[in-house]
Description:
Layout: E1 5-9, H1 16-24, E2 42-48, E3 51-57, H2 70-83, E4 86-92, H3 99-108, E5 115-120, E6 141-143, H4 152-161, E7 175-181, H5 187-195, E8 213-219, E9 222-228, H6 243-257, E10 260-266, H7 274-285, E11 289-295, H8 304-314, E12 323-325, H9 337-348, H10 354-367, E13 380-387, E14 392-397, H11 405-418, E15 427-431
Parallel strand pairs: 1-3, 1-4, 4-5, 5-6, 7-9, 7-10, 10-11, 11-12, 14-15
Antiparallel strand pairs: 2-3, 8-9, 13-14
Amino acid sequence: MIKPVVAVLGRPNVGKSTFFNKICGKRISIVDDTPGVTRDRIYADANWAGHDFTLIDTGGIDNRSDDHFQGDIKKQALFAAQEADVIVFIVDGRVGVTTNDEEIASILQRYKTPIVLVVNKLDNFEVSETYDFYSLGLGVPYPLSVHQSKGIGDILDAVVASFKERTTDEGEDITKIAIVGRPNVGKSSLVNKLIGNERVVVSNIEGTTRDAVLVPFKYNKKDYALVDTAGLRRQRSVERASIEGYSVLRTMSAIDEANVVLIVLDGSKALISEQDLRVAGYVDEAGKASVIVVNKWDEKACSKEEYMRLLQENFAFMSYFKVIFVSALTGASVGQVMGLVEEAYENTSKRIPTGQLNDLLHDAILNFEPPAHNGARVKIRYITQASSCPPTFVLFVNNPKLIGISYKRYLENRFRERVDFSGTPVRFVIKGKGEE
């Protein structure tokens, strides 16, 4: 089954993101009193009365705003309306019907999509306060006090009653691809080029993307979702309580939930910054498969050989990296990115048969035995693969304290020589007797 799509629209500060978070059961969209906080479409899974659906939060539409991004915000919101099965149009019951509400309603009336009109901020929950909104011509206005969770059930009943069943190929899960990097390295442009249309706001102003934006698509008949994230700055440059601070937390969460991460670097500069390394380090620590995407290669600052030396020197801690040089502006080599994503995901998902594992371990020990400490020598009893994503192997030994980081690194290198684990971390866990 394809899950129905529900888009939440309205002008700024009517409670769209608060409603979105309430329905999803967790804080996904950033909520702030500042107009224009939500700029892109934010996707999340939701359920009501046994009905699964995808909920989309959108930016506030304000035709009179002087916000530099308002044109893009409106375009993204209307994109969401066009792809939705149901539109939830939220207005402010305290303010009453505004010219902006009337203009948005006029646009929505052109669509054949079912619309659920919601009057929010009715803390006294007086139904009579909704009567003026009949003038919008969108049917019955549903009262809501999202902060008090009043009226949500009636609204969701109306939403799911409008669903129409759609089918698709079954049996495949969505593979999530997080796109991370410093501000203004071209992450959003890369998303748009991979998808083939403008699904996220693109600007050369740093910090344009604030939320993690989920963009579903298909590749090779498989379901994927690109997650465009806010650019990660140095931690001391970001106040934790600020809007940008929440964006950093969302980016970290997007990495944690991803199957593969695209680490985007700026190829127009012949340097790897400290923050590039912090981003990559977090991806490695999270155990995620990854591909390094060197963007803006149409403006390259050095040769590919020189840049590869930079990568090998700076990314020695993740020497398994896959890399591709692209230009999201011209589209050069962008078509090869998904092929590398598939390879990295296949490698991180690998399960090695027990027989092959023991052969790999036996050959590694013959070549270089674990070092002895004070006359005590390590005896490796056996090895097993505990999990994949990333591939994690457990060594059972007589004394775990006798195997240090250097020998685990040696084992990893020997395993990589025999098995293609490019693009993914590999973990070795050491356990002693009785720790099975």
